[in-house]
Specification:
Elements: H1 2-36, H2 45-68, H3 70-94, H4 97-114, H5 117-124, H6 130-138, H7 141-156, H8 164-181, H9 193-197, H10 202-206, H11 209-238, H12 243-258, H13 261-271, H14 273-293, H15 297-322, H16 331-360, H17 362-367, H18 370-375, H19 377-391
Helix pairs in contact: 1-4, 1-5, 1-6, 1-7, 1-8, 1-11, 2-3, 2-4, 2-16, 3-4, 3-8, 5-6, 6-13, 7-8, 7-12, 11-12, 11-15, 11-16, 11-19, 12-15, 13-14, 13-15, 14-15, 14-19
Amino acid sequence: MKNMRQQVLILAGSQAIFQSISVLIMTIGGLAGALLTPDASLVTLPISMASLGTVLVMFPASLWMDRAGRKTGFITGTLSGIVSAVISMAAMIQHSFILLCLGMFFLGIYQAFAQFFRFAAGEVALPAFRTRAISLVLAGGVVAALAGPFLASYGSTLFNVAYMGSFLFMAILASLGLLLLSRLHMPAQPGDLSAQAGARPWFRVLSQPAYLVALFSGASGFGIMVLGLTATPIAMKHYGFDLSQIAVVIQLHILGRFVPSFFTGRLIDRFGVTTMMLAGILLLLAYIALVLSGVTWGFFAGALVLMGIGWNFLYVGGTSLLATTYSAAEKGIAQAANDMSVFIFSLICSLGAGPLLNTLGWKTMHLILVPWIISLVAPVLWLIWHERRATGPALK
């Protein structure tokens, strides 16, 4: 039990470091892009390149870790984060938009491997502790809420070259992550021929009702979050807020995303996974309502907090639901298909954030999200009906 908790804490620390880097990039990525390109519609392209890198590497990363092990994969991903930081610093020095996009692509490789931290937590934990272990790893993002925006803001003016200091902090964080992961010890997973023989065909795994609902809900929640978060710094700058004010809003959003992880697992155990997912959908609708209500600092902050909590309930709920749909022999394809779908949504939304904001404006781009969010209710209700019809009212 002690060793299990230690490994979960290592994964939580690794997640905290990765999320700090992710939040740092979300804070200044669009602003750095705006500094290097004259085309307003391309300012979010560097962030989109990170999503593209994740989409392209997700499947190879998952399948390779099935063979080489989680630790090897996580170290590879973290090394990619260091490479990303170095290239991005060079981009700012050379004033090269293409180099910045390349640097963000390598960040996407880091992100592809980091997405499996939460799955690894489920693998090191005993079944009774699994949901809480996943929540605890995601709760590592609380550190990111404090570190990411601060390092982005402080580093942006640390040198004469704008944002170079921010990317330097990114390299330092990734290096610390490398040291932490060197102490990770994953338990042996069933990988013999008998385990592989028990694996179902991939289409049977991916076509399960619970799997499809978990995938669609998680991917939608992530896409909506990325769209809003990518556009927020640019919109706030348009409305006259400075980087320090923007950074605090991002901090509050990240706290909204990850503080609930300390108790989301318990709420799922008590009320059921689908109930928490429905609560997440309602919170996303509340986020849209606040966005439409005003553009003062308070409305930005309140909206981003609600969006963060809504994302947490959908994402933790979806991850917990997903973990019930596959065996150890099936986890490679099941996890990779889910997370690749998540980042396809993320890529589309991050690519769309700049053009939508530039064309429609802050409020209208959110108004068109309402039908998408409402559409999330039907699959969850369908799953409740399907499970109760099949096994009785065991799934809340």
